[in-house]
Amino acid sequence: MATHLGDRITGVFWAAFLLFSWTAASIVSGSVIERIRSSAFWVHAVLIGSVFWIIDAAWGWHYGGWMVRELGYHDAYASGVIHAIAGGYALGILAVLGPRLGKFASNGTPRDIPPHNPWLLAVGIFLIYTGFWGFYAACNVPMISPEGIDGQITGVPWTATNIYLAPTTLGAITLNFILSLSGGLMAAYIISKGNPFWTFSGGLAGIITASAGNDLYHPMQAMLIAAVGVVLSYKLHYWVERRFKIDDAVGAVAVHGYAGFIGLVISGFVLWGVPSSPYDGYAAINPIGQFVGALIMFFVLGFLPAYIVTRIQAGMGLLRVPREVELRGLDYDDNVTYEAAKADVQAAEKAEVNA
């Protein structure tokens, strides 16, 4: 087995893409918490992390992907290939899984179930901001040899490129990252009237909205696009909740799925005519290509397979925990049986009636 001492990037990409697989599954996990069976969720974690995310990365997040070549699809920092697909996948599960007990009143009005610990919530989201910047850096190819390009790239080869091998710099994408975070935070603070959960989540949604084109946007474009995406995602979240009785426990479908979809569509207009790749003969970025790409990410590879698999799980009785277990909490001791959980809940309900 030959040792390639000159390969300084494969190991980094292997670790980064493994992390992205975990990320896709973890996005889904937040939406479905408190009522899905662990065994059912692990099936979905494997499917999105090891099957569908891999397919979409090959199609649209690779310099040789057919979506890049034929559609002009451009998604430098994964508005679609991580976030839109994960949000769509989560929505496909939620459409079958149903809401948490008590989420909707008898007349169908949704109840707000606030985070249990807003301080840990804030710490967690701020850690995500930090990790997301590392994700941006990992989506770049820090060094590429001109000899390895085989003369297929038009123009002068660069030593700092995005995932499509197009020129970029770490300083430029860092500035756009910070401004899209800022735009998201400010827009979310205004639209949610200062709600801490949505303000912090809006910062993340802003980054995700602008990520498709943050290698090409002007910094002010990044901030404004982030703000627009946050407002639309926030509105969509509550409209879907009321209209379809979808209970997204942590707003992941909105923050990741809607924001990612919207970011792809917006980038198609803002970057219309810009090369999607430095390779000769590839389609340029355009609104139709980005819209079709968003549909493929969110619905074809996200929502549809999740919905089909979840319907099968539900039909087999393998999807949702019993009501008694949900009331007691899914983190109960492994030695406690469903029957014991049911007895505990019944005793508590009887005591409440007697009181």
In brief:
The protein is mainly α and 355 residues long. The protein has twelve helices and no strands. It folds into two domains: 10-320, Orthogonal Bundle (Ammonium transporter fold); 323-355, no CATH class.
Describe the structure in your own words:
There is one protein chain. Helices cover 64% and strands 0% of the residues. The protein is mainly α and 355 residues long. The longest helix is centred in the last third of the chain and has 29 residues, at 287-315. The protein is globular and about 75 Å long. It starts with 9 loop residues before the first helix and ends with a helix.
Task: Name the features.
single chain, 355 residues, mainly alpha, Ammonium transporter fold, 2 domains, 64% helix
Secondary structure elements and their pairing?
Layout: H1 10-32, H2 38-60, H3 66-71, H4 79-97, H5 118-138, H6 170-191, H7 196-210, H8 219-244, H9 252-270, H10 287-315, H11 323-328, H12 338-354
Helix pairs in contact: 1-2, 1-4, 2-4, 2-10, 4-9, 4-10, 5-6, 5-7, 6-7, 6-8, 7-8, 7-9, 8-9, 9-10
